[in-house]
Structure formats: structure tokens, C-alpha cells
Amino acid sequence: MNKYLRLFRFGNCLMGAIGVLIACFIAAGFDLGDHAIKVIIGCVLVICFEAGGNALNDYVDYEIDMTAHPDRPIPCGEISRKTAQICGIAGLAVAVILSFLISFDTVPLVILCAILMFAYETVLKQRGFVGNLTIAVLTGLIFLFGGSIIGDYSQVWTLALLATLVSIGREIAKDIEDVESDEGSRKTLPMIIGRKKAATLAAAFFVIGPILSFIPLLDNTFGILYCSVIVADIIFIYCATIVFKDAHKAEKLAKVAMFAALISFVLGVI
User: Fold this and answer.
1) Is 144:153 a contact under the CB 8 Å cutoff?
2) From CA 172, how far away is CA 168, in angstroms rounded?
3) Among positive and negative, which fits the CA dihedral 153, 157, 163, 164?
4) What percent of the chain has pLDDT over 90?
5) How far apart (Å, rounded) are the C-alpha atoms in residues 178 and 175?
6) Residue 90 pLDDT > 90, yes or no?
7) Cα-flanking dihedrals φ and ψ of residue 206, to 5°?
8) Alpha-carbon distance 221 to 242, whole Å?
């Protein structure tokens, strides 16, 4: 694969664009075609944003990647750190510029995301739980971004909040799993309060997600097919029970549950 596509983790960038497309569909329903140009720009914007964030990640973590990910472009000597830094800043800057082509509602949102991403990669990543919160907020903002493209947040705010909260659980579970490898480089929540207490907190966030998922049922936001969200809820609750013994499995299953919840929101619109 091309060295720049590897630097940008282009597959992840495309997944981000698909996430925004789905968020736009949830916000607009079958009127999505009326916003086609703005949606396309939004998808390109997210690709540029994530490419920039991933390039910054490789720039900052080059020493760790020398042993953890020796096949990445910088450790391989295919791309210099300076080039990665330029690509990272340029990607975030292009995303902000593109936001002006969508609407003024999207501009402050994208600027906020760019600031959070830059702060995370350069400072907050090393601060443990603050870094977890930052990534979780960025995850939730993807869905609010979809709402901003359409100009309607009423259908996406619940999903954005759900995604943010369960992502906190996922990030804590990942830190529990990585305690040994993070020793000396980061001060994560499990290191500060212990694995058991951290797992309890992660479990709490995994349970809050299913509780929030009932809001659209109570206010009749979506159609009957949204009831399929019970599948995601069951997986999230299972994650809460196993995170104490197998944080890795809980983190991976939480990602599956989030995807299932996303599908349920789409079905609810249909």
C-alpha cells in the first residue's frame, strides 16, 4: 500500500466518512438527496480530518512505534517526521476550510474538533482519563457533525450522547488491557485507581448506554424497527460483566455493540 495511505490509515478515514453519511441519513431520512453536495463535502472533510489526526499520531508516537509498530512509514524510514507533521496540520486545516463550504453551523464544530484532536495528540494523550474523555467526545461529535450538515440535531443527539458515554467505557477498557505497555509512558486511570475500580467505572458507562437507548422509544422518535436496539443493549451489558476479567474482549465487543446500535438508528428512520 502507498506510504501516505498507510500514514493516514485510509481505511479508518473511509469508515469515518461512512459514519458521517449514516449520521446524515439519520438526521435527514429519505430527504438525504436534498443535501447531497453538503453531505459529500462533509465526507471529504472527515477523511481529511482523520488523515491529519493519524499523521499527527505517527509524528508524536514515533519512538513508541519503533517497537510497537515498526511497519509504519516513519519507523520504516519511508516518511520523515517533519513530513508527517506537515501532513497532520494540513489535514486538520483543510477540514476547517471545507467546513465553510457546508454551513456556518459546522464551522465552530469542526474548529472545536480540530483543537481537541491537536491537543489530544500533543498533550492530553499522556494525561490518562482526560485523553479518554477527549477521544470519546470526538466520537460523539461525529454524529452531531452529521446533524449540523443537515441542519437538524433532533434525531442524532441521543446517538451522539450514547456514543460518547460507551466510548469512555471502551477507552478505559483499552487502558486496563494496556497497563503493562503503558508503564513509564502514560499515567492512565487504571494505574491511578487500580484495575478493579477502573473496570467498575467502565462497566458503569457500558450500562448507561442501554439506558439512553430507550429515549427514542419513549418519545416516539423512530419507527418500530428501532426496537432492534435491544441487541446492542444486550452486548453492552455483557461488556459490563466481562470487563473485570477480560478487558480486551469487552473493548472489542463494545465496538460491535456500537455498530449494532448505529444500525438500529438507521432502521428506526426507515
Assistant:
1) yes
2) 6
3) positive
4) 44
5) 5
6) yes
7) -65, -30
8) 32
Tell which residue, 194, 178, 198, has the closest CA to residue 186: 178
Whole-angstrom Cα distance, residue 135 to residue 140?
9
**pTM of the complete model:** 0.86
Least Cα distance to 208 among 249, 185, 239 occurs for 239
C-alpha cell at 194: 487500580
* Contact present, 266 and 26 (Cβ < 8 Å): yes
Measuring CA to CA, which residue among 109, 209, 165, 147 is closest to residue 23?
147
DSSP 112-158: HHHHHHHHHHHTGGGGTHHHHHHHHHHHHHHHHHHHHHHT--TTTHH
Angle at 177 between CA 175 and CA 181, to 5 degrees: 80
Residue pLDDT, tens place only, 9-63: 898 899 889 889 989 998 998 899 999 999 999 999 999 999 999 999 899 888 8
Q: Give exposure, 64-98, as e/b (b: 16+ Cβ within 10 Å).
A: ebeeeeeebbbbeeebeeebbeebbbebbebbbeb
Q: Which of the 8 DSSP states describes residue 227?
A: G
H or E stretch at 111 = helix 106-122
| Cell reading at 218 | 419513549
Residue 181 pLDDT level (bands cut at 50, 70, 90): low
